[in-house]
Amino acid sequence: MKNFALKLKRFLKSEDGPTAVEYAVMLSLIIVVCLTAVTSIGKNASSTFSNVATQLSS
């Protein structure tokens, strides 16, 4: 039991855990921003291609 308590104490003092969590949060935010940008650009491109196709057919 004492060994477990020492490991837990070392883990709580260590900065590796919080650093990993910070990196995970930053990565998830970057992914959300990228997905939002790709979706927005895709919708704009689709709209542009539709307008061009409409103008070419008339």
Topology:
Layout: H1 2-13, H2 16-57
Structure description:
The chain has helices spanning 2-13, 16-57. It is an all-alpha fold and 58 residues long. It is built from two helices and no strands. The longest helix has 42 residues, at 16-57. The mean pLDDT is 88. The chain is rod-shaped and about 80 Å long. 93% of the residues lie in helices and 0% in strands. The chain has one domain.
Proportion of residues in extended strands: under 5%
Characterize the largest beta sheet: strand count, sense, and whether it forms a barrel: none
Query: What is the quaternary state of this protein?
Result: single chain
Cα radius of gyration in angstroms: 25 Å
**How many independent structural domains?**
1
How many distinct beta strands? 0
Distance from first to last alpha carbon: 81 Å
Provide a compact summary of the structure.
93% of the residues lie in helices and 0% in strands. It has 58 residues and is mostly helical.
What attributes does this structure have?
about 60 residues; mainly alpha; 2 helices; rod-shaped
